[in-house]
Amino acid sequence: MKEDLIQKLHDLRVSNTLPMHMPGHKRNPTSAPYGIPYSSDITEIDGFDNLHSPEGVIRGIELKAASLWAADEAFISVNGATALIQSAILSSTVRGDKILIASNCHISVWHALEIGGLKPVIAEPGTKEEYPFVLQIDPETIRTALRTDPDIRAVVITSPTYEGIMSDTAAIHKITSDAGVILIVDEAHGAHLGVKDQTLFPASASGDIVIKSVHKTLNAPTQTAVMLIRGDRADKRLIRHYLSINESTSPSYLLMAGLEHALNTADTDLLYKNARAGRDSLGKLEHLKLFACDGYDISKFVILTEGYISGFDLADLLRKEFLIEIEAAFPTYIIAMTGTGDTAASIKRFTDAILAIDSSLSERIYAAGTSELKPVPRRSKLPVEKAVKNPSVSVTFDEAAGAVSAEYLFAYPPGIPLLIPGQEITEELIGIIEDMTAAGSSLKTEPYRTWDGTLLKVDTDARHKV
Ligand SMILES: Cc1ncc(COP(=O)(O)O)c(C=O)c1O
Question: Which CATH class is domain 384-458?
Answer without folding.
Answer: alpha beta
